Every structure is written in structure tokens, then in C-alpha cells.
Amino acid sequence: MPVALASTSAVAYGVSDYLGGVASRRARALRVVSVSYPLSILLVGVAAVVAGGSPTPVGVAWGLASGLASGIAVWSFYVALSRGPMSVISPITAVLAAAVPLAFGLAAGERPSTTALAGMGVALVATVLVSLESDEGSSARHGRLTRNLMVLTVVAGLAFAAFFVLLAQVPADEGLWPVLASRIGATGVVLGAAVAARESFRFSRRLIAVGLVIAVFDVVANGAFYFASQAGMLSLVSVIAALYPAFTVALAVTHGGERMRPVQMLGLALAGAAIILLALG
Predict the structure, then answer these.
(1) CA separation for the pair 267, 257 (Å, rounded)
(2) 167 contacts 97 by C-beta, under 8 angstroms
(3) What is the spatial distance between Cα 199 and Cα 72, in angstroms, rounded to a whole number?
(4) Mean pLDDT on 83-93
(5) Considering the entire predicted model, what is its pTM?
(6) Which helix (H) or strand (E) holds 240?
(7) How far apart are the first and last CA of the chain?
């Protein structure tokens, strides 16, 4: 069950990122998440009421902290992508988001099987390979990775990792209320960044509709990861969830008309092998 839930999370994160990327071609990324994140609060709120559970201050606090980390991750990642080479920034962020929770789980005493450990290693490699994008397009004109951009990239990767780790600390039987707190925290950061950037909060109907679809997948992704971390080892489920770039790339090829690089094809194949190994482990 944890593997299935974590895989669902990876798929939903991948779809959400793909849709967000498509929407960002018409509107700035910060405007897109300024629509989708508040909508995700409403969706999780309804789901939390239906699901029930007994939230505690501790669980809600862990959820809120994870949301703050998520908001910082998204903001710093988008800023880095807008100023630097995507082909360098994406893999660094992805490997940090996968490796840090893995290390945390192992340090906390989790002991995956040999097969699962092999799957984790393959998953880390797959995450890097599928995130390797060419320098064609908007990211190419921004030049090399400067020291400031490297800091932003590392902050994004560590913040994504912190989101996984913090949400996994929520005690059992609290329902979806900690996830609601997480979305509130993330939305606060994103809207604060939008205000600081003097973004307009007048949204077209099209952007609102797309934002709603993104919010649905975002809620599924976060909820699935939350339940996966409740049912299984953080070291295992976080590595699977971090495979989400594979599904973003797959959608970009099948629906976006993009060409997949040979290294990304290898990454997709390794991602499939990793999930099989982790399921067997």
C-alpha cells in the first residue's frame, strides 16, 4: 500500500507540474500558483471534513511547517528557473528532494530490505536523468549558474525535502487536517511572494479553470504522500514521490509534442524499474 500511494503521489505531482508549466506559458508561474494554491485549501478542507479524524496541535503544527517549506521551495525554484539554466537547476533540486528524506529516514533507524535499497539507488539515478533538460528554450538565455542561483537552487531542493520530512512527522489518525494546515502554510508563502512581486490578482476565467484542475492534482498528490508516509517508511515513500519529473516529462512528450532526450528515456526506464524493485522490497 505505501508504494501504491507514493506512486499515486508521484503521478499526481507530475501531472500538476505539467499543467502548471503549460499554464505558465500564458501567465507567470507565480500567478498560476496564486490561483491553484488557495483553491487547494478549499478542496482539502472539504475532504478533511468528509474524512474526519482527530487533529491535535502537534499534528497541525507539523502540517503547517511542511506547508511553509513547500511554499519556500516553490518560490525559490521558480525564481531560479527564471534566471538560470534549467538543465542544471532541475536535477540538483530533484536529487536533493529525494536524497535528503532518504538519508533522514535511514538515520532515524529505518531499515529497508536489500531489494528496496537497490530500488532507492535506481530511483535517485532516474530522478536526475529525467530532470536533465536541454538548454533550448527560455532557460538557455539566462546563462550560467551563478553563486546566488546555486543558493536558490539548493534552498529549493532542501525545502522540498523538508516538506517530505515534516509532513511525515504527523502522528497517526489525524485525518487530512494536517494536510489542510500544510496547504494554508504554502499558500501564505506564495501569496506573500506574489504581493512582494506586485503581481495582479485579477485572473481570467481560463486561468481559474486551469488553476482548479491543478489544485485537484495537487491535493491528490499531497494527500497520497501523507497517507503513504503514515503507512510506510519515509526513506521509501519519499524516493518514490520524488520520481514525479518522470511523469511530467512523459506528459510533455505524449501531449505537449516535446521530444524526449535519450538520457531522459533512460531515466524513465529506470524509474519503472525502481518502482518494481521498491514494490518487491
Answers:
(1) 19
(2) no
(3) 17
(4) 74
(5) 0.84
(6) helix 234-241
(7) 12
